[in-house]
Amino acid sequence: MKFGETFMEYLHGEQDKFLHKCSHVEYKRLKKVLKKCRTCKSLSESCKTEQQGDKEEEEEEDCMCEYQSCPVCDQMFFSELMKEASDIAGCFSSRARSLLQLHVPTGKLRFLFGVRRCFKDEQALKDEGSMLIEYITMNEIAIRKILKKYDKVHCSVNGKNFKSKMKAEHIELLRSPWLMELGAFLLNFNKLDGGEFSESSGHFSCDFNASLSVMTLTLANSIKLEFDLTCAICLDTVYNPYALSCGHLFCKSCACSAASVLIFQGLKTASPDSKCPICREVGVYANAIHMLELDLLLKKRLKEYWKERMSGERAERVKQSKEYWDLQTQYAIGY
């Protein structure tokens, strides 16, 4: 079965109600846009003729570069695809956030979501998490397929360039921190008798025994993703992790140190000019995501390590608070 048929079957399958309010890639419509592009077809044929005449790599690259744009469908194709990808990422983030708040509510929402959780059993939560992962996976595959088809029709590399643009815009679907949170969420559900955990839950697995802590996600079409759970600042497994807007993962204390704010003040007080320690992008702290499910997974799987880090951060928090208020007192009384 072709992917187009598989994708349409997915959209109109058992998840129809679940997908009712969710955006998705208009795969068939985008394919029609490519079919209408007669100019592109002629360019593709001429490109193939040149490639058959000379198979050397340099001439193939010249051919690829010669027809990199198409005035007929470029504007419609890429603008629509970018909008759809952005809507999908937003829908996925919103649904994942709502689901995970039912499992690990915080602050004033703890009571409200606790009541809501009474009317929704754990298996239903797990099923919804699995459907969200399938939703983001199918749309990611659809985007990859349609971009590959675009490059094939136009004999160009614009499809690959578009992927880079998606990454720069932080709408790369399979690199969303919420996908990592859903993975931890499913692993947290996979508790066995005696307090032990199995090494995999659905498509997710987590390895804390190797030199690097890694969460692995295996998807359809042999797509395999690895999420490194090591903080790039302290070089240990993340504790109380936060994902910045750019997608990089850090311990809260390490991120606060990088942003030049105190732990008890939080990342939201960071200056808009503060940069990510890895990619040097500015303004990535204001919308940082607290990875509560991942922290819960680490708390259960690495009990001794988690307790040690908790004691260390608590001591540092108290120290910073004392120094801060001592300094404020000195300013207030004038010495």
From TrEMBL:
Reaction equations catalysed: S-ubiquitinyl-[E2 ubiquitin-conjugating enzyme]-L-cysteine + [acceptor protein]-L-lysine = [E2 ubiquitin-conjugating enzyme]-L-cysteine + N(6)-ubiquitinyl-[acceptor protein]-L-lysine
Domain of life: Eukaryota
Domain SPX: 1-164
EC number(s) reported in the record: 2.3.2.27
Recorded metabolic or biological pathway in which this protein acts: Protein modification; protein ubiquitination
Alphabetic keyword roster: Metal-binding, Transferase, Ubl conjugation pathway, Zinc, Zinc-finger
GO molecular function: ubiquitin protein ligase activity; zinc ion binding
Gene3D superfamilies the record matches: Zinc/RING finger domain, C3HC4 (zinc finger)
UniProt keyword annotation of Transferase present: yes
Record-annotated RING-type domain positions: 231-280
Protein name: RING-type E3 ubiquitin transferase
